[in-house]
Amino acid sequence: MAKVLVFIDNPGQALKKASLELLTIARYLGEPAVALIGELHDDVAATLGAYGAQMLYRPSAADLDDYLVGPKASYLAAAVHAADATVVLTENSAEAREIAARLGIKLGAGVITDVVAVDADGTAHKSVLAGSYITTAKATTPVAVLTVKANSITPEPAVTGTAPATVTVEVPETAPAASARITARNEKAASGRPELTEARIVVAGGRGVDGNFGPVEDLADALGAAIGASRAATDAGWIGHDAQIGQTGKTVSPQLYISAGISGAIQQKAGMQTATVIVAVNKDAESPIFEIADFGIVGDLFTVLPQATEEIKKRRG
Amino acid sequence: MEETLKIIVLVKHVPDAQFDRHLTGAGNTTDRSESILSELDEYALEAALQLIEARGGEAAGNRVIALSMGPAGAVNAVKKSLQIGASEGVHLSDDALAGSDAAATSLALAAAIRHLGADTPADLILTGMASTDGETSLVPAQLAERLDLPQVTFASSLELDGATLTARRDGDAHADTVEATLPALVSVTDQINDPRYPNFKGIMAAKKKTITTLSLADIGVDPAHVGRSGSWTAVESAEARPARTAGTIITDEGDAGIKLVEFLAAQKLL
């Protein structure tokens, strides 16, 4: 049976849904093991067992977080050898993709990013050119490294849980030598809203909000949604760059995407057109966003959004 | 007197994202007929130009080399880079490179960079945060691994003091300050600067600049290690996603917010 190694970078107090998805996919592909960086809380250890992890690998070095990417990739390569894994699964974040990239070179392994589904034989499904094509791709090498997008599968615990054994993996001492060192870290304030790329609902604002994201935020909070923005809105400094959706920002694929005051130029569409349902509110009836919206409202977002927010609150009593 | 800088900027010829883009042929490779210099590479080029200008520019012996790998048309990305201000251009072109994945691309680029550094090794390799076609962001990290260089990726600011690089990197949960010693590989985001446009003087000056064309034989790479046969991943099938069609469009008559909620309820999205 194929050994599948799931990489989890600093899980914190509880595993993210994206990690549970990786564990679920790993079980479907073979025998799952986990390579972890950072502290291992009891709850996390219990969940890893419940999701069927057979082995748990941890690094001998405690300072991997002090460097960018390089030493983490060295550790993961050592863990792949220790686990004798033929498939490595990571999340699809910018840093995880880079760790996967360097791991691929170290192992002579093909790397496939932006994966949304994996067949039992390792064939990966992904969308390319901003969601305009669906492709299947396969690593032609003995080991395959796949970075999997969040919301690709519904996480399910294993039928029979395990109590995984923990093994320490030696990190090569040479690893940090050719790496950039992190000299300062500023944690960002948590917004309390869902993370953009993992959110089920996204409400996004663009040029039309004219500096006032209030109505967008209120509607997002009523729906339990994440906030997104077009490049025009982030470039104007109305909202942080983290919120940018599109070709040069984040790609989202939520169940519902509400676009407010965004024209929907190709660059923006590139980041959101794989959403299941698209709603658009824009004053300009000629906006390209209406060509792809399931429900479009030609109107002023400053009246439409607050009215919708009130109506949602009313219905929920 | 500071040391001179030799910076290699990777520039890519990509399909213009303003238009529909297509996959073509047996290998499902990207159709590059309507291609331009990747928008995201202009930030890397600008960062390189600012770094050398701070040290007296070309006149003081600093150099920015624009390097592009790709078919014949890719020379246009190099030409545009020269117009913007790069000192010289290099076009790595070989039929055997067609269909290379990130691993094969990074193998060829690493060999080209070693070749260009045979006399004086480059101090800095600069790239955009991603290509606007493949969008995998794998190549910069894979190049750093192959060249055994520290990588400073997704830099939103960049400073150079002697041989010490300091950059800011914005993540979702935290913003980091990172430090590395030259030589290094840096990829920059679209937040780092405002790229300049080529002006008339730059366009005229570019005509006098040299573009060197390199083949795989020139850089000592076995054709079997690149292209589709040398790649470690294979695209097996590609299907165009059906175009989205417009749904119901209404004009607000004072109750559009309520109608919006009714639509969401009907779709079971509340």
Quick summary:
By secondary structure, chain A is α/β, with parallel strands linked by helices.
Major sheet attributes of chain B: 9 strands, mixed
Percent range for β-strand residues of chain A: 25-35%
- Tell me the overall shape of chain A: elongated
Give the biggest sheet of chain A: 9 strands, mixed
Q: What distance lies between the first and last C-alpha atoms of chain B, to the nearest angstrom? A: 66 Å
Radius of gyration of chain A: 21 Å
In sequence order, what are the helices and strands of chain B, one letter per element?
EEEEEHEHEHEHEEEEHEHHEEH
Shape of chain B: globular
What structural category arises from helix and sheet content of chain A? alpha/beta
Number of helices of chain A: 8
| Mean pLDDT across all amino acids of chain B | 91
Order of helices and strands of chain A: EHEHEHEHEEEEEEEHEHEHEEH
Strand order, largest beta sheet of chain B: 11-10-9-12-8-1-6-7-13
Greatest contact pair? A-B, 92 and 89 residues
Spatially, the strands of the biggest sheet of chain A line up as 7-6-5-8-4-1-2-3-9
Q: Average pLDDT across residues of chain A?
A: 93
Low-confidence stretches of chain A: none
- Provide the gyration radius of chain B in Å: 22 Å
Number of separate strands of chain A:
15
- Percent of sequence in beta strands of chain B: 25-35%
Task: Compile the SSE list and pairings.
The complex is a heterodimer of chains A (317) and B (270).
Chain A: E1 3-9, H1 17-29, E2 31-37, H2 42-50, E3 55-59, H3 70-83, E4 87-91, H4 94-107, E5 110-118, E6 124-128, E7 133-139, E8 144-148, E9 165-169, E10 181-187, E11 201-205, H5 214-223, E12 226-229, H6 231-235, E13 256-260, H7 266-269, E14 277-282, E15 295-298, H8 301-315
Parallel strand pairs in A: 1-2, 1-4, 2-3, 3-9, 4-8, 5-8, 11-12, 11-13, 13-14, 14-15
Antiparallel strand pairs in A: 5-6, 6-7
Helix pairs in contact in A: 3-4, 5-8
Chain B: E1 6-10, E2 13-15, E3 23-24, E4 29-30, E5 35-37, H1 39-53, E6 63-69, H2 75-84, E7 88-92, H3 102-116, E8 124-128, H4 138-147, E9 151-161, E10 164-170, E11 174-181, E12 184-188, H5 200-206, E13 211-214, H6 216-219, H7 227-230, E14 233-240, E15 248-251, H8 256-266
Helix pairs in contact in B: 2-5, 3-4
